[in-house]
Structures are given as structure tokens and as C-alpha cells.
Amino acid sequence: MNEISTKAAEYETADNFEAKKQRYLGKLDSVEDALDRLNRRVQRMEFLATILVDVVEGKDEVPGTVEDARRQSRSVVDYDKDWYYQQVDADSIGDYEQKVQQAQKKVKEATNQLENELDDVEQRWQNKLNAARNVQKLFGHSSDKARMFNEIEAFVERRMKDDSESISSLRSEWSGLQKQWNKSGMDWQTFQRENNLSDKTIDILQRLAEGRSIQLRKLDGDIAKELLSVDELRDVVKIKI
Fold first, then answer.
1. How far apart are CA 143 and CA 148, in angstroms?
2. 5-38 in b/e burial notation, b at 16+ Cβ within 10 A?
3. Do 154 and 207 have their domain in common?
4. For 21-58, what is each residue's pLDDT tens digit?
5. Cα–Cα dist 211/199, whole Å
6. Which of 43, 114, 129, 164 has its CA 20 to 30 A from that of 189?
7. How far from the centroid of its chain's Cα atoms is residue 227's Cα?
């Protein structure tokens, strides 16, 4: 009878150990999954932060929400394996997972802000490109400029947010596009400044670029002189004074 009782106790102990082991492993797997999700989100956030600050904007620092997310993320990952086992054993791993989820939320908020700021960058460049394409209509089609405009548009629409690309390759690509733009890209504001044109003259040119007709009474002598002072416009606008 004692032998049977001893065997039963051994089986019970073994069963309890196996159940406890599975419970530990299940909780640790849950923590590992949460940390993996946090890590992926942090990587995405850091990619967008680098694109915004170092590649397209040249800012001195990242938004405050990014720094907050970094601090909270670091506060939940700086532990060794023994610490996690201790938390499971003390049945306090749930509290830790809540902290990880809070860090994930902070990272998501920071990522959303970065995406919004990059959307603003995209919109500013779309406005520039639309204006530059209108300016180009005055001088006829240029395949080189059309290609440059399309490449800049593709970069700000998609490529700068594509984290499958390396930061170094995107930085190099954007630097090259910027050099091309500074050399030959021109929106209305730049065109006006470089050719010292009045607002009235720019208004006339914008109308012409849009294919609209201009009443002769709007072409006073000063506007006509300004138009003829720009070499590129002499073959575009024919005026007799």
C-alpha cells in the first residue's frame, strides 16, 4: 500500500511539474511575441525618423514623441532571462506585459506623427512639382525634366517610406534628385525670383501655362518688357509693342 501511495505521489509531482512547465513556457512565449511586435514597431519608427530628420528635412532633432517612445521601449527590454522566469514564478508577468503594450502604444503614436510629417513633405513637393510642370508647359516638353519630376514624385509618394530599402541608398537617391532639381527644376516662385518678375507677369504666365487666353488690355508695357527680358520666353510669347 505504501509503495502504491509513493508511486501515486511521484506521478502527481511529475504531472504538476509538467503542467507548471507548460504554463511557464506559455507565458514566456506570450512575452516573447509582445517583445517581437514592439521591436518591429520600433524599427519602423526609427526608419521613418531617420528619413524625416536626416534624409528629406535635415532637422536637428526628432519629434518629442519619438524620444518618449524610445525611453519607454528601453525601459521594458533591459532584462535577462532569469528576470523573466522570476516574474512568471511570482505571477507578475501580466503587469510586465501591460508595460510592453504601453510602450507599443507610445511607438505607434510616434510613428503616426512621423507619417503625418512625411505626408506634409510629400504635399509640399507635390505642390512644387505641379507648379514646375506648369512652368515647363511654357517651354514645351522636356523628357529629361519630365523624368526628373516623375522620379521625385515617386520618391516622396512611396520610396521614402519603403523600409525594405536601406537608409544609405535612399539618402543617396534623394541627394541626387535634389541636385537635379536645384540645377533645372523650377516652380513659379523660383522662376519669379530668378527672373525678377512682378506678380502681374507671373499671373499672366500661369494663365498661359494653363492654356487660358489673355486679354490684350492686361498686357501693359511693363509686363511686356518683363516677358521679353527672359530669354526662354522670347520664343514662347510673341508681342509687338
1. 9
2. eeeeeeeeeeeeeeeeeeeeeebbeebeebbeeb
3. no
4. 677 677 778 888 889 999 999 999 999 999 999 999 87
5. 19
6. 114
7. 40
CA distance 53 to 55: 6
Residue 239 placed within a domain: no
Q: What is the pLDDT of residue 12?
A: 46
C-alpha cell at 229: 527680358
Amino acid in position 90: A
**Alpha-carbon gap, residue 215 to 223, rounded angstroms:** 13
Do 120 and 198 fall into the same domain? no
Which grid coordinates belong to 43? 524599427
Better-scored residue on pLDDT, 111 or 240: 111
Contact 184, 151 (CB under 8 A): no
65 and 178 within one domain = yes
- Spatial contact of 68 and 181, defined as CB atoms under 8 Å apart: no
Residue 11's alpha-carbon distances to 1, 14, 20, 25, in angstroms, are 15, 5, 14, 21
Please, are residues 76 and 99 in contact by the beta-carbon 8 Å criterion? yes
Residues 205, 118, single domain; the answer is no
Q: Would you tell me how many other CB atoms lie within 10 Å of the CB of residue 51? A: 25
Total of domains in the chain: 2
Element at 203 (helix H, strand E): helix 199-209
- Least confidently predicted of 77-91, 92-106, 142-156: 77-91
The CA distance from 11 to 3, in Å, is 12
- Each residue's pLDDT tens digit, 46-90: 999 999 999 998 777 889 999 999 999 999 887 777 787 787 777
